[in-house]
Amino acid sequence: MDSSRSAQRAIIQFLRAEGEHASQIYRRMKEVYGEQCLARCTIFRWCQRYEAGRINIKDLPCPGQVHAVINSATISGVWLIRQNRRINTSEIAVELSISKGIVHHIIHKNLGYGKVCAQWVPKHLSENQKTARMGVCLTQQFLH
User: In terms of DSSP bridges, do strands 113-116 and 119-122 run parallel, antiparallel, or are they unpaired?
Assistant: First the structure.
């Protein structure tokens, strides 16, 4: 049995259209879905929405920051850290007219950089850097 939220909302919508009361809908859904059933207050809230004329069972988009801000143009704009390793997120945010949180997300998640001694550095070494580091370690091992 599909216990997804949208499936349960569709059932709520159907039963409400048949004239079932919210408490009866909750009891019936609790019998079928058990622990995966929506909360009682959620079922009552969706019943009110359907009574008010709502027909869509999917969530409406929430107000707030648009997710389209993180795109290739803003990611390439954040590459300012390559030119100035000591630049901070506030300065980048002002430069690109985006929030500090988005800048922080791009730097850490998309670019893979972190702040060390007030400079932005890659979190992971490149293959050349790994090979060079291994060579230094091997020469140190032979010296001892």
Answer: antiparallel
State the Cα–Cα distance between residues 74 and 92, nearest whole angstrom: 10
53: helix, coil or strand? coil
Is residue 101 within 8 A of residue 69, CB to CB? The reply is no
Cα 114 from chain centroid?
20
CB-based contacts of 117, cutoff 8 Å, min separation 6: none
Domain residue limits, the chain: 5-52, 61-143
pLDDT tens track for 130-143: 888 788 888 877 77
46-56 pLDDT, tens digit each: 999 988 888 88
Three-state SS at 114: strand
pLDDT at 117: 74
